[in-house]
Amino acid sequence: MDQLRHKDFYGSAEIDLEAGVCRGKLLFIDDLVTYQTDTVAGLKEEFENAVEDYLATCIEVGKAPQKAFTGVFNVRISPEDHRAASLLALKEQQSLNSIVSKAIHAYLQWSNDQGNKIEHPGAAIGFSKIGIKT
Known about the structure:
4 strands; alpha+beta; 3 helices
């Protein structure tokens, strides 16, 4: 899926061939914000207008705009993996959050090495710098 970005907001870019429109919605927030246009060229502009309208509406109603990424999310894994990760964290005198964070960093680094370039301030971090032995 193609993504658009404006002011730390991300949006989808979809083409509906049957309806003959381009549309999308803001991603990674609970509020529903959509945009639509008749041309591919106009989609980025409509997305940016939707972000600006969302921000203005939040001010108007006295609500803080949702942050797309707060650093807090639920992870659902098997009970066996949960137990193993908890025991490893205990053995290494670390928190479970630290273990999960290191695993995600390692995956992002590996993905980046595979050519899946992502925008991440720590993308150039080597495994050893995040506490993972290579």
